[in-house]
Design goal:
Layout lengths: L2 E4 L2 E4 L15 E3 L10 E6 L2 E6 L8 E3 L8 E3 L7 E3 L5 E3 L8 E3 L8 E4 L6 E5 L5 E3 L8 E3 L27
Parallel strand pairs: 5-6, 9-10, 13-14
Antiparallel strand pairs: 1-2, 3-4, 4-5, 7-8, 8-9, 11-12, 12-13
């Protein structure tokens, strides 16, 4: 076995296994200097389980990414085609590089930016369309809020109100 360091490049000529003592945080670390805190990347174990840390010497979980001020914490994709991002403030974005809230979903070319359904079915229980319509039991909500199926309302008071309509029309469609 041989380890060669040449002009900042590390080459291993044979496969090798490194064993860490149990419960050893930061057993092996990569950093920009011997005094760099936190390290760029650290390996270790806790309670017999492997731990990998990015920008932390004491990973909380099997993989921990410690956010640094002003630096995006996690991305799946690229700066121009991000599928998932966790920004430096902890906001999560799906289909956006700039989430404006704790969870931001941008539609892109998908038919539904938000869909909840059963495993293995193509029928959703709940959808939100790109236009903002909400559907329960339907993939084609024709209005801002649409329910397909039986509805049960259990309340002493059900209020229908409008800030702009002078009259209220209730209709039955078979």
């Amino acid at each position: 076995d041989r380890l060669t360091v040449n002009a900042g490049v590390t080459n291993y000529t044979n496969s090798a296994t490194t064993t860490f003592a149990g419960d050893t945080f930061n057993a092996h670390a990569f950093a920009t200097s011997s005094t760099a805190v936190p390290p760029l990347f650290s390996l270790g174990s806790s309670s017999g389980l492997p731990r990998i840390g990015i920008a932390t010497a004491t990973p909380y979980a099997m993989l921990s990414v410690n956010g640094l001020a002003g630096v995006t914490q996690f991305v799946v994709g690229s700066s121009t085609g991000t599928n998932l991002i966790v920004d430096s403030t902890g906001n999560v974005g799906v289909g956006t590089t700039s989430p404006v809230g704790q969870l931001a979903i941008e539609m892109g070319t998908n038919a539904f930016p938000f869909w909840i359904g059963d495993t293995g079915t193509s029928s959703p229980s709940f959808v939100v369309t790109g236009g903002g319509n909400v559907g329960i039991g339907t993939t084609t909500p024709a209005a801002l809020f649409a329910v397909s199926g039986n509805t049960y309302l259990n309340s002493n008071t059900i209020t229908y109100a409008s800030s702009s309509a002078g009259t209220l029309t209730l209709s039955y469609q078979a």
